[in-house]
């Protein structure tokens, strides 16, 4: 697994990688407010560590992080585990083209299928296959276990405080939860059998 690149001695100093970077900037440009810079760099640093760990965690399934995120958002939608591509685009940090590329891979792997809404000839839905549901659940369990190892020295109180603080920051910069996805009657569906892009 990819680590943080920090040795036990370095961790014992109470300083992280960002501290070393900002100390120099405080000396060189004391007029710059580095509180926001430190927040940005720590969020980015944590993101890099998590992405590396997730990529390694997904290797047994030959999935990318984007694949995992799409499977995860579909499984989280609840039975019958389907969403419109536009709803996935709103819930993932992917462009519409990025979602389409991921769906192409997952279709070829038979983890998702497209289903057309017969009440609207233009309506298209993406649904997890039984294999997709199983893979989504297995990878989520593996990732949860990996995070427990990664955060083993982080207390529950620290996790809750940090999570709440990050939520406030995200809301402050306008990163709001999207509206609820559209739902449809199960009687208006039809499998397309199409393995092209969304």
TrEMBL record:
Protein name: MarR family transcriptional regulator
InterPro entries reported in the protein's UniProt record: HTH_MarR-typ, MarR/SlyA-like, WH-like_DNA-bd_sf, WH_DNA-bd_sf
Ranges for region Disordered: 175-198
Coiled coil location: none
All copies of domain HTH marR-type, residue ranges: 36-175
Pfam families assigned: MarR_2 (PF12802)
Recorded superkingdom: Bacteria
UniProt cross-references to PROSITE patterns, sorted A to Z: HTH_MARR_2
Signal peptide coordinates: none
UniProt feature, compositional bias: Polar residues: 184-198
């Amino acid at each position: 697994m990819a680590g943080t690149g920090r040795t036990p001695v370095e961790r014992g100093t109470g300083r992280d990688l960002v501290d070393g970077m900002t100390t120099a900037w405080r000396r060189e440009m004391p007029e710059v407010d580095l509180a926001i810079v430190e927040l940005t760099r720590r969020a980015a640093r944590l993101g890099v560590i998590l992405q590396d760990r997730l990529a390694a965690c997904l290797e047994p399934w030959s999935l990318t992080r984007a694949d995992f995120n799409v499977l995860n958002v579909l499984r989280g939608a609840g039975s019958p585990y389907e969403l419109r591509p536009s709803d996935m685009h709103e819930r993932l940090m992917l462009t519409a083209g990025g979602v389409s590329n991921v769906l192409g891979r997952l279709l070829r792997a038979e983890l998702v299928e497209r289903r057309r809404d017969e009440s609207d000839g233009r309506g298209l839905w993406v649904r997890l296959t039984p294999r997709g549901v199983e893979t989504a659940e297995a990878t989520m369990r593996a990732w949860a276990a990996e995070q427990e190892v990664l955060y083993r020295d982080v207390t529950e109180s620290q996790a809750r405080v940090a999570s709440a603080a990050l939520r406030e920051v995200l809301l402050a910069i306008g990163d709001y939860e999207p509206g609820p996805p559209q739902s449809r009657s199960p009687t208006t569906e039809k499998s397309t059998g199409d393995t092209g892009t969304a």
